Amino acid sequence: MDKKCINFYNKFIKYNRNYKRREVKMASVFKQLGQISMVVEDVMETAKIWNDEYGIGPWGFLHFTEENMTSMSVHGKNVPYAMDIALCNMYPNIEIELIAPKDDRSIYAEFLREHGPGIHHIAFVTPHGTFNVAKEMLERKGIEHAQGGKDPMGQEFAYYNLCKQLGCFIELNDRPDDFHPLPPEEQYPEK
């Protein structure tokens, strides 16, 4: 091998080693993937397609409104919003989530209006104090805290707009130690 090739190879290896170290350090805040979420027009209709045509199910359905959620905000303002969701446990601790906005006030409604149905966000569970650390890190980078709230199970959530950088929103979840998911209000297919 000539000298130029060896020098290039050595620089390439050194760069990649350093890159991987930085990558691991940055990724340490996001330790547990929780969901891959899509915004759709109708959660039942979309869940039926996933289940009946592609074998992905069963799906549990929940309805969230200002009556069962607290601390709701959109783009930094206190704004109530409503949504239907469908959840499917694909792998241990990873869900596919379908969200249908029930009004025009949420980032889900904005996304559906601007892009149509599609992948909206990836959610990370940030337990034991890492929720605030992750929020602070994203806010220091100038990333918009686009939406937030607290669900009936006591889980706080925050969406950050990383659409330009990563192609989707990132959701952070702060689950209390005694967290238990709500039982579904409906299920498809029925048991």
From TrEMBL:
<dbReference type="Pfam" id="PF13669">
    <property type="entry name" value="Glyoxalase_4"/>
</dbReference>
<protein>
    <recommendedName>
        <fullName>VOC domain-containing protein</fullName>
    </recommendedName>
</protein>
<dbReference type="InterPro" id="IPR037523">
    <property type="entry name" value="VOC_core"/>
</dbReference>
<feature type="domain" description="VOC">
    <location>
        <begin position="32"/>
        <end position="175"/>
    </location>
</feature>
<dbReference type="InterPro" id="IPR029068">
    <property type="entry name" value="Glyas_Bleomycin-R_OHBP_Dase"/>
</dbReference>
